[in-house]
Amino acid sequence: xxxxxRPTFSDSHKGPAVEKEIxxxxxxxxxxxxxxxxxxxxxxxxxxxxxxxxxxxGWKLEAVPADSKSSLTSPQLVNLKEVEGMPNRRxxxxxxxELAATFADVYQELEATRRALRRRExxxxxxxxxxxxxxxxxxxxxxxxxxxxxxxEAVNCHSAAVYMLDDATSExxxxxxxxxxxxxxxDPPRELRGSVADLEALLGHAVVLDxxxxxxxxxxxxxxxxxxxxxxxxxxxxxxxxxxxxxHSRDFSPMETNIxxxxxxRIAADLEREILIEEGISLHKLRDQVECYAQHQADxxxxxxxxxxxxxxxxxxxxxxxxxxTMHDWGVTSDGSLFSAIVAATGTPLLASSSAAxxxxxxxxxxxxxxxxxxxxxxxxxALWQTSPDDGVASFALAKAIPEKxxxxxxxxxxxxxxxxxxxxxxxxxxxxxxxxxxxxxxFTRGRLTLRQGQxxxxxxxxxxxxxxxxGIPFEKRLSSIDRSAHRSASAVVERLRAAWLTHCGARQxxxxxxxxxxxxxxxx
Length: 525
Description:
The protein has helices spanning 36-57, 93-125, 136-154, 196-202, 212-217, 254-300, 349-366, 373-387, 462-466, 490-505; strands spanning 8-10, 19-21, 26-28, 59-64, 77-82, 159-165, 171-178, 190-191, 205-209, 226-233, 238-246, 311-318, 326-332, 338-345, 394-402, 407-413, 417-421, 426-428, 447-450, 456-460, 513-520.
């Protein structure tokens, strides 16, 4: 490019802005889309249709693109012209114009579909999974060197080197090379500050240094008579620079600089692939750990129902993800009492599940001690408050059935719910206390409920009770309307409530929820 033809740029880091010419050693690194292949088929189809349209109607079509910047030569608007040598028109101008306009609309829809399909196919190509090979480390090093060698030989260069930015974007370290001394890989990183050629390249230029003097002035990191420096970058961020050097002084043609830029793109793609592989392996390991912990959480959930004369228990839990903070537990204490509990911990799924597991362990340790159940909750609260590093709290419901007295003791903490289920009524038991883990000085109230034969005590997590349908009605307002027989078993009650809850939620995103039904069996006589 001659001096008089060069565009100018503003140099703003040396005082007032001045007009300067872009030197010959700077060539813009811009990717351009080649639309020649894309328009060939369109032009051919359009010419063929114009010819057939003229023969059929006696009118000649002329395309008027709606956007002059469009890369496609498809008709956006059409005009009609008379065909010389054809005095007799087979169609009136108005009819031919309507026909041509209809064709233009159909053609545009066809081209829009074609372009959408082309882009979709490219997107699907990006979904090909990236899988590592057994010798991936050695393979990556060899692949980078082979790419450098092939690119250097293609432009008649004797050496090539890739310098990558560090995390602080302050240094450039040699990561791969071809044609240089083997020990140069041990050289310390270069400071980015002062590496003007690399800085220019990272701004998007291809820097061409055609003499040893220019290479010395621009502090080229590799020796030779001439060199080119181009950026190595992903679509979103710069990664480093690629240098290629020749033994003698020479200029590099635009075609040669394009080849070097293609090589830098290949290197960036290989490096990004390596990053994706490492992230994929890490995510796979993390997913395996999460699945293992989720299985452990499921194994800790009781499935064998305790056999206590005159009582039956059943439960149901659901989680939106493999891990969750809701859980239920039951068992028989050393004095023969039947206990049941639900926990709904707050936080992210992993933290909530960890808190729920800790609360279950604490419950198991304390439930057999000579303590009232409100003291059990108080000690669990103190333990969670002292050991939780954040503001994690949990709703907790603990019930203890005393078979010989046909009564249940109950403690509710946080937003946990309890209902006394009769044949045609669901009575909400109001005895809420603070959430577990909210304050180490929290006090909890113990309630007492007498269950007649066939009646049920229902413990529910907050989300089960407050889940809304499309009309915004919470599920607990429907409890009394659900058909229940006085002689239903605990399993039947839970199954009926589960089906009603899922129907109530409908297509809305379900939430973590758990319930326990503790039913006093009716007499068989």
